[in-house]
Amino acid sequence: MSLVSELRNVGLNCISSHLSTHASCCCRYHKIHKEVYDWFDISFDEFGRTSIPQHTEVCQAIFKKLMENNWLSENRMQQLYCETCQRFLADRLVEGTCPTLDCNYDSARGDQCEKCGKLLNPTELKDPRCKVCQSTPQIRDTDHLFLELPLLKDKLEEYINNMSIAGCWSQNAIQATYAWLKEGLRSRCITRDLKWGVPVPHEKYKDKVFYVWFDAPIGYVSITACYTPEWEKWWKNPENVDLYQFMGKDNVPFHTVMFPSTLIGTGENWTLMKSISVTEYLNYEAGKFSKSKGVGVFGNDVKDTKIPAEVWRYYLLTNRPEVSDSLFTWVDLQAKLNTELLNNLGNFINRVLSFIAKAPGLGYGSSIPDAPGAESHYLTKALAEKVGAYLEQYIEAMEKVKLKQGLKIGMSISSEGNGYLQESQFWKLYKEDRASCSIVMRTSVGLVYLLSCLLEPFMPSFSLEVLKQLNLPPETRLSLCDENGDLERARKPWELLPAGHKMGTPEPLLTIDGNGKKQKSTKSGSEVQIKKSCKSEVSISRLDIRVGLIKKLRNIRMLTPFITEKSVVLCNLKPATMRGVNSSNGSCSDKNGTKVELLEPPHSASVGERVTFPGFEGKPDRVLNPKKKIWETLQSDLHTDAQLFAFYKDVPFTTSAGVCKVQSISNGVIS
């Protein structure tokens, strides 16, 4: 069973805004993410989210078990409260200076420092500030529930000590986990004073919700429960099920300490994580990827590059930061495409299949030749020994979840195939020694088939295309299991495909169009020029959003009555005629007849002042070019939150007098 994924998305909306509910927005972003994964050939048995009844049910059941077993405590804690926003602040809405010695990162979040990786409580930050209004929050006392990690320490350490050896834990996961243990486990608060989330089933705390890092990992369980009513056969069956998890390094403690402690505390026979593969950071060009600042190329951008999904998958996996941070650059992407995918892998496969497909007298008429005496053929025997060694290395790497190494080994087999072809001089053998040529060709086409199997986890659509050209169904892939003899067969590539098998039609693999120019033939293969393509220039600063004064209203029947004379106006949309009136701002209407409200600045905001977004600097476009869809690109990230404040992603619409908001529609979409 493949790992299920949980998706917690807060859909969010306004410039004369049509607002929908949180649930509908969550559905919207769930759909967007699913489309990105589909394009990347990433499949799920169940692609779910935690905003579902099953999640609430499973999460609350686990909580009740912890309560029954006395692993929870009640305590009064200090929490940051924003007087301006009139609410307790979620961890993600607090920023400040990291308190860790020698770190002092000035943009640490309320739950974790991005620079040093240390988990934090918001009150530990130096010089904390509210991300919404930038004011300094106050510390207030509030009662909460805590998971008593110190009491679970012995059971947790036994699990970690055993499983980190019995399973495959990457070195960075081991280091991060033991660093946490060395610091000393502390009671961890599992509730929050928020309006959204899973409600706490406890009379005293019924107005609170669970902390996201308590309930989010439980989503793995609850989404499996959506997939099958027999979910306990997977999650409460450690004798027969191995759980593998993959993540970035900043999420390690939540999965190696918090989540296992939660499950252990129930006293039930849970399937705990056996293997974990943790990556360091992938950086972009000269700096870091930043979704909020629009720096980098992201999942919803890559289709526009016209570079095939398998190229992206290959590059990202060869560049996977398994041991240390790695760097994405467009120059390196182009180099790897040309030298590794086209001139190594694509060149080998195309040479073999094209030659066999040639008409008799020039080739084999698409029929795989017989190859008697292959085992005693000098070059072929040497190749088989190398392939056998590589197969052992490949299996070991994949079993230990060293994906980058597994892919590298697969490509090494392709390189050996190219060398084998070149050294054999098969084009001469065809005329001078047809029997030897047949051995080389049958062995080489066996290697092509083997490569389609080895590379399938990394480039599934590429693998399917190779099998199609070989005229083989997908279910014929080797499993490389000793039990069925696949591994032994793979050591003799000339035996992988039967003599006389009719191939399909060979075609060029990995063709590029759009932003990548057409392939051009060279003596060594093919080359592609890739144009740099990312949406780093589409910044919210390109919108000219200002405080406007309402002087007159015409025929706006569905607009919620408002008490302010000011509104927020987008000033650099290309003027359009709406209901016979020349307009340069967003529409106030709603075809479905649902609620519509204006986005309102604070009362004391100055008419004409520009609405800003902290962290995003720059002059706006004079007029937005409708062909470039700047507004449409940015609009999908505009929303209101549960407290009615307006945001671009997690950055508020800000004026000199404070933050913009709406009257009554929370968690809505700005359109």
| Helix/strand/pairing category | alpha+beta
What spatial form do the alpha-carbon principal axes imply?
globular
What's the number of helices? 17
Report the uncertain regions. 1-22, 514-525, 583-591
Number of separate structural domains = 4
Cα-to-Cα separation, first versus last residue: 40 Å
Based on the structure given, which CATH architecture of the largest domain is correct? 3-Layer(aba) Sandwich
Percentage of residues in DSSP E strands: 5-15%
User: How much helicity do the residues have?
Assistant: 25-40%
The CATH homologous superfamily of the largest domain: HUPs
- Summarize the main sheet: 4 strands, antiparallel
Q: In CATH terms, what is the fold-level topology of the largest domain?
A: Rossmann fold
Strand order of the largest sheet: 3-2-7-8
Number of strands: 27
Family: Belongs to the class-I aminoacyl-tRNA synthetase family.
Main location: cytoplasm
Region (Disordered): 507-528
InterPro entries: Anticodon_Met, Met-tRNA_ligase_1, Met-tRNA_synth, Methionyl/Leucyl_tRNA_Synth, MetRS_core, MetRS_Zn, NA-bd_OB-fold, Rossmann-like_a/b/a_fold
